[in-house]
Amino acid sequence: MTRLARPRLISNVAVGVLIVLLFLLPVLYVLMMAFESPSHFLVSPMTPGSPDVSNFGTAWSSANLGGELVNTVIYSVIAGVLSVALGLLIAFPVARRLLRGHSVLYTFLFVGMFLPMSIIPMYAEARMLGLWDSAVGYILIHIAMPGLPGMALAVVLLTASIGSLPMELDEAAWMEGSSYLAYLWRVIVPLSRPALLIAFLYAMLNDWNDIIGPVVLLNNPALATVTKGIDTWAGSNSSQYTLIAAAVVIASLPVVLLFIACQRQINQASLAGSLKG
Q1: pTM score, two decimals?
Q2: What digits encode the pLDDT tens for the residues 232-248?
């Protein structure tokens, strides 16, 4: 082994160990808790016992996860789609420099992604605009709220993607009489599919995992998301650790399956981004 290969191997092993300790072990422990019987977990919380799948049925029925998951899917998908659609409509003129002050607009949106989410102003704005305790209001706020990777992230990703496309495509489309929206749909969307996918997944994942937003913006239990439902239900069942773990696994499973299904597209998006860079 060469002198250079040995430090590289050590660093790779160290990174792998850190990933396992910080990410994989907590996930595996929660998964183990979900299959534990309450009696065995109280006696031996660090060792697995006989699998007990009854926790999932109990958590599903007692926490009303069915309706909350449906709400979460609706909010997340609609907010993700609208974030990407509006981001595309903004990113194209910004990337092609068709707007006055395009650099200021881009900088404003870029900086907005890193600003902390202000809870009190968000609540006050929602009440003033009639968006509080409303499914429509919850979705709209998640699209454009500073500190959330919704429309702003879509604009940043799509501006970079569209900026790498040759302007000859635009000129050819104008000469053929293509309309603005038709050109975006038929040409820009297929060529920017990797950036569109990444923007949609991040926006949807942010909405799915949001805990503070539903607590502040939604009061009606019929509109509750799965994160708010689990948080409220866990408060009255704080000692039922195995049931809480089962509820967390149920709430996380749809997103995990989605990312597994999109793994090939995500890899292609990463490869496309590296080739463009």
Answers
A1: 0.84
A2: 888 887 778 899 999 99
